[in-house]
């Protein structure tokens, strides 16, 4: 069965790398690859969906040796089975939409999307921190490339950089968690197993929990990391539909659901996750209400809806994980549809501005009707998907804390308000003029048939995936996890009344919706990050650079001084010591020359020298007498 799982992750990875390796430049080969790319992408995604369905059925495992005591291991269990099928299905539908929406750089776009999907599938099925870290890195790198896909636009590249850097700041937590796990490895026991993390001793347990929370909050765009999702809207609409519905953002929530035992073991970590999720759902709901750009509204609502998943991951009830997973799946289908509809209108009318999109639902009913269904699901109107899953999450929160339930219920009311705001503008009377069109790109004034295809199956998911919270259905989907928590009749009645009333008010009187000024700029989170992190970091870097320059100058000056000292020493050595030695040698040489002069080899000169020597000796004896 391992071959099935390897095929599941390698098929999109190898196909994506193959497309990315296509030759650049205007060549016949490149043109052929570009023409074939949509077919290749859809075919590969179809194969991935089939493999994911088979893997969800047979639950395979796969392992390969990598590090001593820590192999690279993948497995499909109850949680990952649901996620891999969701990711594969949404990816296929997004690639179908992309076949009509993306005209330039198709090979690069589809190649990046397939590599990204492979990384998400590995993230969902990894059983060790080793596999999780590798997939997490690839997922982050490809997300940057996809957000900055239109690299000729400086804003797109800057937004991709912001998204990458902010999420990378949280990703450091995973390395912290891995270090904590390795710190207590002994006896060859796999130290990076995800199942082992809940059994780490203190203080490593708490270090690992803190690291996992940071990484998950960053990817899931939870407070205080939420603002990167606003910048990510500069990417193509199909990228938003995949990354911010079933893939990267969802993986942050999935990580917390997967490591729910770790959060419970740490105690404080579960409480932190629950409150961060609840507050994100509420505050980013207020941000969504204040937006006049459709994609920005959907982006803020993504952070808010993932807040419900994080809230579920932090609650302690047995059905909390099931509730969070059901909401994650329902949100994936709903939000993918909303983003694709926004992309279709952007291509047709050249704008994302909600006032300019007035009447777009009437003008393009094949887009407007599915969008309406998904928006009503987002609003929590029964019996649609997110109504059922949200009720289950709120029920799990109520079992733990009344305050958590109250904040979650207020966040649900906010979701009804921002969904109603979008709907009322989409379905208002068509304007008599086209002011506001073509402000971002030249609109085509039509939505192609291929872009309409994915909207219907996604609408079915937005309407019907709420059955996951039914215990009998859940038992077949994931028998190893407790069924999602069931809400009481009173709770259901309260939430239904609130959802219907608030949605109705938003439809009839959108101008009466509270839109606080502080929420319009995403809580000024980016400005706070710049003031509290970016600018101090740059100032510290500049200070360190000046210190480094001073140190370099000192080292360079020392080198110059040493060289000058060496030159002086060399001069002294040459003139003084060297001169003295040369003088001694010269004197010795002159003495030797003088000593050699008598050595002529003539006998009579030797006699004369001996006579002189004898005379000198006699004189010395006479004088000494």
Automatic annotation (TrEMBL):
Annotated Pfam families: Proton_antipo_M
Keyword Membrane attached: yes
Keyword hit for Cytoplasm: no
Residues annotated as transmembrane: 79-102, 109-136, 204-229, 241-259, 265-290, 297-316, 328-351, 363-382, 402-420, 455-475, 487-509, 606-624
Keyword tags: Membrane, Transmembrane, Transmembrane helix
Domain of life: Bacteria
Gene3D superfamilies: 1.20.5.2700
Places the protein is found: Endomembrane system; Membrane
Membrane topology: Multi-pass membrane protein
Main location as per UniProt: membrane
Name the record gives this protein: Proton-conducting transporter membrane subunit
Taxonomic classification: Bacteria, Bacillati, Actinomycetota, Actinomycetes, Micrococcales
């Amino acid at each position: 069965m391992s071959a099935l799982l390897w095929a599941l992750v390698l098929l999109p990875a190898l196909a994506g790398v193959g497309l990315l390796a296509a030759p650049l430049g205007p060549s016949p080969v490149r043109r052929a690859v570009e023409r074939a790319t949509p077919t290749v992408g859809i075919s590969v995604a179809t194969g991935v969906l089939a493999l994911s369905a088979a893997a969800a059925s047979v639950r395979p495992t796969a392992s390969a040796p990598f590090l001593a005591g820590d192999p690279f291991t993948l497995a499909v269990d109850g949680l990952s089975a649901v996620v891999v099928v969701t990711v594969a299905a949404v990816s296929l539908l997004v690639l179908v939409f992309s076949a009509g929406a993306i005209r330039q750089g198709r090979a690069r776009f589809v190649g990046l999307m397939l590599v990204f999907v492979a990384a998400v599938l590995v993230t969902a099925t990894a059983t060790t921190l080793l596999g999780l870290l590798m997939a997490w890195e690839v997922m982050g790198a490809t997300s940057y490339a996809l957000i900055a896909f239109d690299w000729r636009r400086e804003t797109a590249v800057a937004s991709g950089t912001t998204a990458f850097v902010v999420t990378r700041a949280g990703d450091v937590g995973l390395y912290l968690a891995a270090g904590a796990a390795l710190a207590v490895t002994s006896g060859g026991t796999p130290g990076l197993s995800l199942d082992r993390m809940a059994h780490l001793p203190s203080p490593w347990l708490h270090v690992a929990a803190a690291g996992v929370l940071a990484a998950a909050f960053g990817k899931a765009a939870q407070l205080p990391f939420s603002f990167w999702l606003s910048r990510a809207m500069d990417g193509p609409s199909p990228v938003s539909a995949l990354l911010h519905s079933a893939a990267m953002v969802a993986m942050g929530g999935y990580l917390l659901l997967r490591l729910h035992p770790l959060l419970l073991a740490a105690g404080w970590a579960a409480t932190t996750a629950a409150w961060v999720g609840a507050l994100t759902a509420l505050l980013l709901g207020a941000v969504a209400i204040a937006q006049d750009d459709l994609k920005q509204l959907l982006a803020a609502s993504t952070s808010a809806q993932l807040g419900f998943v994080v809230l579920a991951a932090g609650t302690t009830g047995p059905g909390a994980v099931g509730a969070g997973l059901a909401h994650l799946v329902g949100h994936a289908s709903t939000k993918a549809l909303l983003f694709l509809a926004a992309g279709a209108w952007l291509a047709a009318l050249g704008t994302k501005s909600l006032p300019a999109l007035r009447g777009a639902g009437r003008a393009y009913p094949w887009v407007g009707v599915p969008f309406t269904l998904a928006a009503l699901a987002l609003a929590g109107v029964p019996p649609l998907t997110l109504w059922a899953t949200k009720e289950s999450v709120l029920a799990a929160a109520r079992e733990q804390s009344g305050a958590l339930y109250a904040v979650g219920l207020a966040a649900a009311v906010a979701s009804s308000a921002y969904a109603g705001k979008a709907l009322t503008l989409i379905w208002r009377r068509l304007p008599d003029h086209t002011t506001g069109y073509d402000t971002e790109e030249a609109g085509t004034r039509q939505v192609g048939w291929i872009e309409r295809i994915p909207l219907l199956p996604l609408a079915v998911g937005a309407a019907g995936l709420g059955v996951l919270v039914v215990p009998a259905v859940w038992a077949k989907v994931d028998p190893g996890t407790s069924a999602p928590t069931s809400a009481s009749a009173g709770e259901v009645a309260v939430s239904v009344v609130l959802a219907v009333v608030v949605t109705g008010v938003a439809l009839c009187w959108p101008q009466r919706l509270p839109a606080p000024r502080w929420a319009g700029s995403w809580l000024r989170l980016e400005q706070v990050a710049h003031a509290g992190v970016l600018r101090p970091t740059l100032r510290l870097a500049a200070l360190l650079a000046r210190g480094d320059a001073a140190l370099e100058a000192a080292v360079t000056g020392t080198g110059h001084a040493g060289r000058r000292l060496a030159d002086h020493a060399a001069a002294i050595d040459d003139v003084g010591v060297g001169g003295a030695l040369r003088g001694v040698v010269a004197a010795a040489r002159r003495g030797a020359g003088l000593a050699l002069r008598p050595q002529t080899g003539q006998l009579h000169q030797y006699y004369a020298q001996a006579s002189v020597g004898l005379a000198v000796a006699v004189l010395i004896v006479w004088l000494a007498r």
